[in-house]
Amino acid sequence: MSNLVMEKPSVTGAPGPSTLTHRRLPRWAPLGIAAGALGAGAGIGVGAGWHSKVQWGLIAGLLYVLATYAITSSVEGRRQAKDRVATSLVWVSFIVAIIPLVSLAWGTIDRGAEVLDADFLSHSMAGLGSSDEGGGVYHAMIGTLEQVGIATLIAAPIGLLTAIYLVEYGRGRLAKAVTFFVDVMTGIPSIVAGLFILSTWVLTFDMGFSGLAGALALAILMMPIVVRSAEEMLRLVPNELREASLALGIPKWRTILKVVLPTAIGGITTGVMLAVARITGETAPVLLLVFGNAFINNDPFNGAQSSLPLYVYEQYKLGTDVSFDRAWAAALVLIAFVMILNLVARGIARWKAPKTGR
Questions:
Q1: Are 193 and 155 in contact (CB under 8 A)?
Q2: 250 — phi, psi (to 5°)?
Q3: Is the Cβ–Cβ distance between 305 and 143 less than 8 Å?
Q4: CA-based R_g, the chain, Å
Q5: Sign of torsion over alpha carbons 236, 238, 241, 242
Q6: Top-confidence residue, 14 or 344
Q7: 189 by DSSP, 3-state: which?
């Protein structure tokens, strides 16, 4: 007989114990093991004379995984212990990854909030020295918005049309070559894109330093991201929609325009927004091509400009206490700008996501 068979009922009529049941740890066991591991890690750190809380945390994480396996295997068996260890590794990895992010955000908010106010957002650095108090980031915000906007106007249409070609029309060697170069461009360092525009636009064509020159370099960095994200979204559109449209006699270009793109527009917009957030924090191309300017320059086509990443670099380079404070405040503005873009991208993705249910 198989040992999965239930035992016979007892004399009183109540069923006997089943071989299908087994012991399990209580629900609070993971938290209890984690608390014990934290205490043991702190004790080992103090006993060894380690002053870094990071070392204490790493020891506690290792002890948590080992204790989880030992306790679970003794109570629930080795198979369940392996499952719990895998779950523990996921949680430990998540905590290890989130701690630097939270620390960075908290440090930036703590240091940047001391200077960030309405005057800082509405004034430039015109006429101020490195040790003078006051000044603001208004000219850098204008530069960033204009440069990123121009780069988006250049890169988004080209990237989208390239993705449409690869998905809808691309066949043979040309499509393979385009895919290869898109992959190569994805890994190009930002300084290389800046040097390329510097050698061609600024030095060869003698167009001078401007916000447009920086936008061209940012467009080079943004283009492969748009191509890859749009390509993946277009491939997710069911072929049945294309076939139904073509069966009605609608031309392919109109099918793409009226059926494929509206279906994938949510994911494409999200990819474009994430690409914008990616290039917003680039410093090297802006440092080479925009050149920096303490005054407000609303014309991106003539004269040097500033940007938020370049402003942070310039203020940190000055090395004074007030410049450090301005750098932290500008970094907080930059993080807030990127966070808003990411939230907008997630909102668009949720808004345009296919509706489920009735």
A1: no
A2: -80, 135
A3: yes
A4: 29
A5: positive
A6: 344
A7: coil
